[in-house]
Amino acid sequence: MSKRAAEGGDSGSQPPIKKVQFEPIFIGSISTLEEMDMKVLQFQNKKLAQRLEQRHRVEAELRQRIEQLEKRQMQDDAVLNVVNRYWNQLNEDIRVLLQRFDAETADESENKNESEATTSFLMQLSSWDKEELDDKLANRVQVSKRAVSKVVQAFDRLSQRNEKITLALKGEFDGEEAPNIDEVVRRANAEIQMENRNLQAINIQLHEKYHTISLKMSELQDTITGKDTLAAELRNQVDDLQYELNKVRARNDKLEHHLGEAIEKLKAFQQIHGTDEKGSNKPNTLVASSVSQTKLEDLQRELEETRELANNRLQELDKLHQQHRDALKEVEKLKMDVSSLVSIHMFVVTSVECKLMSYAINILMLYLLLLISCIRQLPESVIVETTEYKCLQSQFSVLYNESMQLKTQLDDARQQLQSSKNAHLRHIEMMEAKRRIDGTEETTRRMYTTGRRFGSITKGV
Hints:
- Residues 231-265, 289-337 form a coiled coil.
- It is an enzyme of class 2 (transferase).
- The chain has helices spanning 2-13, 33-100, 108-112, 116-126, 135-170, 180-276, 282-374, 380-385, 387-460.
- It contains nine helices and no strands.
- The chain starts with a helix and ends with a helix.
């Protein structure tokens, strides 16, 4: 009684020690040391299989987490690609605008007479904070700021020059009245300015069209690269699923082999113990037969599950094959769209140059008419010997040669468009032939799978 009381007091003062409980394993009767080693190895294999399943579950969770992170990274990369593309396009547009103006040359008076709005805007650009930017991004921001400031200065200088020209043409610059020829020149200048504004509006519209086409082309190229990577990933997934399908088939064959061995053992057990023992041993035979029957049912159930899993894997493989073919078709379609956009872009550029050249010829003809109206009273010999007449004649010859070159380029563009159409038709014929080959391959594969299933069913029977 005292020992029990002492044990009870110790257990009340200290917490109970947690003991690891092992599941009892029934090994059975053992006659030799080899049988005991074999039983121990079977138990160890079972434990290793359990740990392997646990590791597979952990790997599946980690793989799912990796896929989520990859999707997030792909979304961030897509956003950054869009930002970079539009930023580069903005820098290119500003560079084109600077080419239209002589942004590098400026007088000292023009620099001194800058408007207050221009100087304040330039000071605001130079005072932007750059602490949160790295070196590469800071360089890009600096380039964009410098380009914007150049555009603003170029527009300011242009407005100052226009004001000076307007004052000189109105006669307010010298304070004297202008003669009649000045009125003619001012009227011609007003008409030319109106024509110039129209030309600038048309040029801006064409530049907008070129901008949208180039953006669409770059977006389609990014889509093509994304589809190529997706196709590569789908190929890898198909290979992995094929490997898993082969593993499941091998496991199915092993289970079928074990099932056959169990059936043979059951038949042998029934033949040995079914006729000898009838009286008191009859309940033992019933217990053994019921145990073997339950094992047989478990094996059959596991076999059905493996077959169903193999069928599901095969359906998933078919679905991935279909997705792969659809992705390849979409990639080809996008490539054809890019080629058609390139041909349209070439045609638009040539048409723009032709229109600009025609407007330039019209402006030169207007100048000629104005000069003819101004010097109509002079003799022809004096007009022919003047430098203005020779300059106009040389400019007209240059413009005529350039128009002939543009005509030849237009003919070449038409020939390229026709060749691209022919190549597109040939590509469509090749795709149809490939589709027919894929259909025949799918039918043969289905016939092979049905034959394999029929063979497995006959083997199980």
